[in-house]
Every structure is written in C-alpha cells, then in structure tokens.
Amino acid sequence: xxxxxxxxxxxxxxxxxxxxxxxxxxxxxxxxxxxxxxxxxxxxxxxxxxxxxxxxxxxxxxxxxxxxxxxxxxxxxxxxxxxxxxxxxxxxxxxxxxxxxxxxxxxxxxxxx
Length: 113
Prior knowledge:
Elements: H1 5-8, H2 38-46, H3 51-62, H4 66-82, H5 84-93, H6 98-112
Helix pairs in contact: 2-3, 3-4, 4-5, 4-6
C-alpha cells in the first residue's frame, strides 16, 4: 500500500480574513407573505363556510395557475387537518368538486407522511 504524501503532511495554516468594515445586513425574512386571495378563503373557512375556498380553487383551475393551486390546496389541507368538520361539510355538500377532491388528496398525503 502506497502512502500518499499529500495526506500525511500537516495542514497549512490559513490566514484570517479581515473583518468587514460594515456590519452584516439584517436577517429579516418573510416566510409566508400574505396572500390576498387565500386570506378570505381561510377566514371564511374559520367561520365554517367552504364556498370561498371552492371558488378560489375553481378560479385557479380555470386560469391554469397550477403553482398557486398547489399552494392553496396545501394551506387548505392544513386547515382541514385542524378542523375536520369543515372539510367533511364541504365534501358532503359537493363530493364531485375537483377542489374538494384535491384538498382531500393533499390531506391524505399529509396524514400518511
């Protein structure tokens, strides 16, 4: 077995970097920016109403806004996890609605995960 000298030498000391003159920028990050379309749906869902959420998902489907639809379905499924009676009322009222089916699928994935 051949020993490689590069791995046997002691490591070189690195120079310390000089300190920057200005302080580091603030680390303020907005993780979830407020959404003008989702907020009313969540407020009405909190009041037990599902028609605004259904209309929101129908509008994103009609406009082919798939990324927004995915984000809204994820947030609505998170709400449905904490308030299952809201989701069950929506599913009982319109079981064939693509929006309720999407939220139900996301809810099943979240529960399984």
